[in-house]
Amino acid sequence: MKKLLTTTLVVLITLTLILTGCGANSTDKNSDDSSANESKVFKIGISQYVEHPALDAAREGFIEGLKEEGFEEGKNVEFSLENAQADFPTTQTIAKKFSSENVDLILAIATPSAQSAANVTKDIPILITAVTDPVSAGLVKSLESPETNVTGTTDMNPVKQQFELLKEILPDAKNVGIVFNAAEANSKVQVDIAKEAAKELGLTIVEANVSNSSEVNQAIQTIADRIDAIYVPTDNTVASAIGAVVKICNDAKIPVIGSERAHIDNGGLATIGIDYFLLGKQTGKMAARVLKGEKPAEIPVEDSKDLKLIVNKKAAAAIGIDVPEAVLSKADEVIE
C-alpha cells in the first residue's frame, strides 16, 4: 500500500511538472504572438481615382479614422498613395502594383478604383469609400453580407431629399440641369433616381453628358438658358471642375444644388449631403477592425452616418435668391 501511494505521488508530481511546462510554453508563445502583432508595421495601399475635394477629404478622413483606432503612420502603419488621375487603365496598374507588393490592405477611393482592385485580388482585404452602389458595381453580393474580400462605405446620395430641398428653396423652378459622365456607373445610378424624384415634384431634367472635366464648362453653357437650377451629383468628372462649375452658374445666376459638402464650400447654394471627411473616417474605423483580424466578407457595407443640411447665404445673395426661413431654421450649418 505504501509502495502504491509513493508511485501515485511520483506520477502526480511528474504530471504537474509537465503541465506547468506546457503552460509556460503556451504563455510564452502567446506573449511572442502579441509582441509580434504590436511590432508589425501594416502596409496600406491607397488607390484614389482622381484628385478633387471630396475624394481628398475621404482619404484624409480614412487616415484619421485609423489613427483614432491606434493605427498611425510612422508608428505601425505605412501608406502608399497612388492617384489614377481619372484614367481607368491606371487604376488597374495601381491595383496590380499593390497586389505584387502584397500590402496588408487596400483602400480604394471611388468606383473605378474599387472595381480594379477587386478584379486584381481576391485575397488582400479591400476597403472602399466614395462608391455609390457597391452591389451593381460587382464589388459585394449585398450590403448586409459582402461575401467577398471587399467592404467599406457607400456614398449613395439622398437624391430625392436633395430635389425636395431644391423645390423648397426654388418653388417656381421647372427645369433642372444635370451635368454628368454617363461612363461613371455611380453617376448613372444617381441620374436615374433624380429623374424619378423630378417627375414626382413636377420638374423636368435637362441632361448634359461629358466624358472629361475639360468638357464641363461648355456643357453647362449649352443648357444654361434652358434651366432654372442645376443639380450636381457625386460625379468624379464634374467634381474635378467644381470650382469652374459654380463660377459659371453663379455668373449666370443659376442656383447650384449640390450633393455633398465640397460643392457648397466651393460656392454652391445648398445641399443635404455627405461630409466626405467623416465618411472616410468611418471607413478608417472599419479598416481597423480588419487589421485586428475581422474578415471583410463578414462586415456589412455602411452608408454615411452624418448627412447635413448646409446653406450658403453668401452664394444666395450673389445670385439674388432669398432662402426661406423654414430652410435656414433647420439647417445644420449656414455659411454667411
Describe this structure in words.
By secondary structure, the chain is of the alpha/beta class. It folds into 2 domains: 41-155 and 276-306, Response regulator (Rossmann fold), CATH 3.40.50; 159-274 and 308-335, 3-Layer(aba) Sandwich (Rossmann fold), CATH 3.40.50. Helices cover 47% and strands 19% of the residues. It is built from 13 helices and 13 strands. The strands form 3 sheets. Strands 2-1-3-4-5-11 form a 6-stranded parallel β-sheet, sandwiched between helices. A 4-stranded parallel β-sheet has the order 7-6-8-9, sandwiched between helices. Helix 3 crosses helix 4 (111-120). The chain is elongated.
Keywords summarizing the entry:
336 residues; alpha/beta; Rossmann fold; 2 domains; six-stranded parallel sheet; four-stranded parallel sheet; 13 helices; disordered N terminus
Question: Can you describe this structure in just a few lines?
Answer:
Helix content is 47%, strand content 19%. By secondary structure, the protein is an alpha/beta fold. 46% of the residues are buried.
The gross shape turns out to be elongated
Number of helices: 13
Q: Give average pLDDT, whole number.
A: 91
Per DSSP E runs of 2 or more residues, the count of β-strands stands at: 13
- Oligomerization: single chain
Q: Estimate nothing, just give the exact number of structural domains.
A: 2
Structural class by SSE content: alpha/beta
**H-E string:** HEHEHEHEEHEHEHEHHEHEHEEHHE
Q: What is the radius of gyration computed over CA atoms, rounded to a whole number of angstroms?
A: 26 Å
CATH superfamily of the largest domain: Response regulator
Spatial strand order of the main sheet: 2-1-3-4-5-11
Sheet of most strands = 6 strands, parallel
Might you state the CATH topology name of the largest domain? Rossmann fold
Q: What is the percentage of strand-forming residues?
A: 15-25%
CATH class annotation of the largest domain:
Alpha Beta
Q: Give the proportion of residues in helices.
A: 40-55%
- CATH structural architecture of the largest domain: 3-Layer(aba) Sandwich
From the N-terminal CA to the C-terminal CA, the straight-line distance is 97 Å
